Each structure stands twice: as C-alpha cells, then as structure tokens.
Amino acid sequence: MYRHLMLSAGALLLAAGAAAAPVELKIPQKIDASAPDIGLPQQPGARHYKLAAPGMDPVIGWANHDPKMTRIGDRIVVEWTCHLGDENGPGQTIVGTVVEFDPETGAPLNTERLQYTSLTPAPLPVRCRSWKFDPERIDEYFSHGGLELRDGTLYFSGRLLAIHGVTDDLSISLNSHHGIPPSVPAEHWRDEFDQKSGFTNEIVWTFLNFRQRWKVEGNRLIPDSPGYVDKRLPETQEVTKGRFKQLAPLPGWQHLPLLADAPADFLSGLKAPAEIRPEIATRTLPPRCPPGKLHIAADGNNGLAHYAEFRRPDGSTVAIRDNLKKRGFYYAAEKEKAEDYYPPAEETNIPGEAMPSAGNLPDGRAYLIANYDYRRNMYILLSKDGRNFDVARFVRGARLRAKKGIGKLNRPSGPNYFRSMIVGKKLWIVYSISKQEIGLTTIDLDSL
After folding, report:
1. What residue stretch is flagged as signal peptide (predicted)?
2. Which one of 5, 105, 139, 201 is at 20 to 30 Å from 301 when CA atoms are compared?
3. Share of the chain residues as helix, strand and coil, in percent rounded to the nearest 5
C-alpha cells in the first residue's frame, strides 16, 4: 500500500485531510518506504528479543499474534493467541509465558529459557479453516480471552467461539468479534466466502464463557483452580431468522464444572475490578463509545477496529484507531473526561495500519507506536502536548513470509499488533511478526 509513498509532514496533512483531527504529525523528515529505516533516524537504546516462534516448543503453533502483558511483581506475564492451525481456526487456544526482569533497570533476564503454558483447553483437534461452511452443522470451535489481575490474583477470562458464515456487512462482523450476538438478515448471510459479491466478513459466534484462576511459580504459569464455564453448550444455534444449525458436541468442555457451583472465594475474587493501570500500560479494553458506535468514523468509513489511548497534560484523552474500510492512516478521537463518550474518530495524517499502541512516559509525554509499509516497519512518535507529534524514530523492520492460511498475510510482513508498558527504566513493546512469531523490544527511557 505504501511502497512508493514518500510523505513530508505537509504532504501528509494534505493527503489525509486531517485538519480537524485531534492529533497531527509534524516531523521534519520524509517517511519513505523505499528509504533505509523508512527515512527516519534510528531509535537508540533499543534491544530486540524473540519470545516465541514455531518450533521453539510443542505448545506453540505456526501462527501467533495479538500479545498482551500483565505485571506481577518482578515478572511480566506475556500471553498471545496461538493458532496451531489457521488464525481463529478450530482448536485455537491462548498461550502464556513468564518473563523475569531486573526491577531496577527493567531488563528481561530469562528470554533464552522461557516456558510455555496453554491457558485454555483446546476445544477440539486442530484443523484448517474452510472457505465453505456446512449448511447444517457448526463445529469450528476455538477459544479466546486473556489474563486479568483482580485484587492481586490472576484470573483467565475467556470465551468459546466459532467462526461460521460470512456477511457483506462489516459492522455485523466487527460487533460479533466483540461478543455481540450476531443478528444477520438472510440476505446478508452466506455459507461460503464470495469475494465478487462482497461476502468476505466472517461471523463469530460466542457460545459460553470460561474462567480459571492462575498463579506464577518461578517462571511458570500454574493453574490454581479448575476451569469453570458459565453454561452448557446448546444443541442448536439460530443463524438467520428461522434457520437453525446443529452444534457439534464438545465432551471435554461439557464436563467442566459450572461457574455457579464454584467456591465462594473464587466467585468473590471474580467480583473484584480488573486492575487497569493506564499510566504504565497500553489500553486493552475498547474505548468508551456510545452504544453501537464503537466502529463509527466521522467520514463515514465505518470500519474502526483496534485501539490505543494516551493522556494529555490537560487531562483529556485520545484514542487512536485503525480503519479496516480505509487503510493507510490512523484515526483519532478525543474527549475531556473519563466518563465521556468518544465521538466518531477523525482521519489523521499519521500513516499506519493494524493495532497501534500508545501511552505516556514517566515525564508525561505521549508516545505512539505505529506500523508502516504493509506492517513491515515499527516506528515511534513522541509528543509533549498530546496534539503535535514532532519526533519520529525507526524502531524495527522485518520481512517474514509466514506460512499461508486463512486470516494470514499473504506477503512478507513485520512487527504488528503492539502492546506496551513501562517496566523499570525501559519501555517494553511486545508484538507479533507476520502473525507467526512473538517479539519483544525494550527501549531505554533516557533515550526517548
């Protein structure tokens, strides 16, 4: 998309039409995909580590992405979606590892001897996804979710899902990914992908919720309770009005204990609010938008997907989004108070796609970690006022052609799906590389 794009700050503003955007790129350099390091100065004080890759351990599949981080004392728990087969395909689970760090410097200590743990039971044997769905039966189960720290205790909160059916309505697909039950009119449903007619947006069904308590022992994740489900899997699912499909049984999950029968201490622990520390960690929850407006953009290209957030010195906050309906530049929205809703996001002049990460450095400056050139290059932007990003530096590039599969990138890609956190005297960034490997980059704070 950006291969021959060369942009100055002024040209970017003109190209994006971003005069009304809450944030603006104001850098002296030209961002050029054909130039070394995309035309930006290198970020000093950066070190790169490999946390996971196919072949490193039997638990790890050939496709891994969307990592997250949780800090517990002098350990960082890193978890990610592990695609033993296709992305979001049958048998997918979540894998976690524990990274020890020096509490003073923030330097990781055990990246050469990591141990890996599946955080959800695999719902069924792994197989590839299909471009065509059974007209009578649903059996594409996979699991998704993440760890939460509640009153100092680690809980896994996940869902059992299946991708089954496609629609020409992107909003139905995006909402279903967030657990909103699909309501699909028959005319917007297909049992197979059909690119010519626009039926390319997958439909996600959520069938039940899964909860489990975990603990960290040394550098390993250990289950601290059984896994509980909130209900039993139903026998059928209505996919469009009046049309039902059979759900394949899952004996392993059907025998898990019910959440309602869990011990009192387990249930009371779940009621504690999840610990969210936006002062040190990138946002992992959706930005607060009016009901039904999570994906709405001000220009009508309503495909806002991933999200990151930072604070300004005046207390207002900014959410940074990518847009699946108009790729190329990030979108942004601003609000004054935490309880306010974000308005529809405006297109900015900041080039990038896929999941950005944002936050605040200890001195209050905002940072934004972005993709460029088809997710091949990671760069970082800095701003003193949270409105004008006037420092841009290249962090890391890669060109990895991952094994091909549904939902996978079909050309060489690099770092993407960023999460970040301040750890000691370093900024930690975890990410996937071409949705296959999991990487970690640390940057010395005094070099930013």
Report:
1. 1-20
2. 5
3. 10, 45, 45
Collapsing DSSP states into helix, strand and coil, what is residue 226? Answer: coil
* Residues shown for the chain: 448
Token couple for 368: 């934004």
The pLDDT, as a whole number, for residue 19 is 46
List C-alpha distances in Å: 28 to 19, 350, 365: 18, 14, 19
Q: Which domains does the chain have, with CATH numbers?
A: 6-447 (2.120.10)
∠ CA 298-299-303, rounded to 5°: 85
Strands (E), 168-272: 201-217, 220-223, 228-229, 236-240, 243-247
Query: Radius of gyration over alpha carbons of the chain, in Å?
Result: 22
Nearest to 134 by CA among 163, 89, 90, 164: 164
Which residues share a beta bridge with 238?
Answer: 244
Residue 218's SS3 state is coil
CA distance 1 to 340: 35
Looking at residue 444, its pLDDT comes to: 98
Distance CA 375, CA 409 (A): 10
Closest CA to 159 of 145, 173, 149, 180: 145
Q: Which amino acid is at 427?
A: L
Cβ proximity of 105 and 83 under 8 Å = no
| Integer angstrom CA distances of residue 34 from 31, 229, 318, 377, 400 | 9, 51, 31, 11, 17
Residues 6+ apart with CB under 8 A from 251: none
Residue in 258, 447, 443 with CA at minimum distance from that of residue 369: 443
How far, in Å, are 42, 53, 60, 236, 438 from residue 56 at the CA level? 30, 6, 7, 39, 11
Give dist(CA 275, CA 344) in Å, integer. Answer: 27
3-state DSSP assignment of residue 415: strand
82 by Cβ neighbours in 10 Å (0-12 / 13-18 / 19+) ranks as buried
- Please tell me what DSSP assigns to residue 274: B
- pTM for the structure as a whole: 0.90
Q: pLDDT value at position 409?
A: 57
pLDDT on residue 83: 81
Going 223 to 227 to 228 to 229, the CA torsion angle's sign is positive
Tokens of 225: 């309770």
> Do 129 and 86 contact (CB within 8 A), yes or no?
yes
Find out whether 432 and 438 touch, Cβ atoms under 8 Å: yes
Which value, to the nearest 10 degrees, does the dihedral of the CA atoms of residues 428, 432, 433, 434 take? -160
Task: Give the C-alpha separation, 29 to 38, whole Å.
Answer: 10
Cross-strand partners of 205: 162
Mean pLDDT of the chain: 89
The DSSP line for 370-397 is EEETTTTEEEEEEESSSSEE-EEEEEEE
